[in-house]
Structure formats: C-alpha cells, structure tokens
Amino acid sequence: MARRLRIDHGGIAYHVLNRRIGRLPPFEKHEDCVAIEKVLDEAYAKTPMRVISYCLMPNHWHLVLWPTRDGQTSRYMQWLTITHMRRRHTHRDG
Q1: Mean pLDDT in each 10-residue stretch from start to end of the chain (94 residues)?
Q2: Which CATH class, in words, describes the domain spanning 14-87?
Q3: Fewer CB under 10 Å: which end of the chain, C or N?
Q4: Domain locations along the chain
C-alpha cells in the first residue's frame, strides 16, 4: 500500500530528515558526504529550493527547507534522495 500523500505548502519552513533502509549509515566514507553536497547543488539547479541549513550525521541527515511553491518540497526531496542513492550504486530492496 502506498503511503499517504504529503502536503507541503510554499512559504513555510520544513525540517526534513532521511534515514537509509535498515538504519544503515547513509555515509560510509568521506566521499559519500562530498557526494551528497554535490547532489544538493544539482537539486537546487533542478528545483530551486531555499536550503536554510543541513546536517550530515553518521546514521541520517537533516535539512531545513523553505519552499516558495506548494509541492516543491516533495519534488525536491524525491529527486535528491533517489539521485544520491543511485549514484552510490546501492542495490537493496525496500
């Protein structure tokens, strides 16, 4: 069953976080941290988003985002997380 649709409104700041499947660490080496920062830059070029702050932690990461339009946060996060994981060549069911 699909998850419920998340509604995100423009003009409101959101705190979002991401964990990997099975609580595996999203950043296994320093290069993974560098890679997510590059993907953050690319995500901005694709879907302009005001990234107020971010924090990369050993087992997850946080972003504070401030979208200008409704639905922008969901599109941004979907592209960001899928792109980051594909570039890591992580193949795992979930």
Answers
A1: 75 88 74 86 87 88 93 89 75 47
A2: alpha beta
A3: N
A4: 14-87
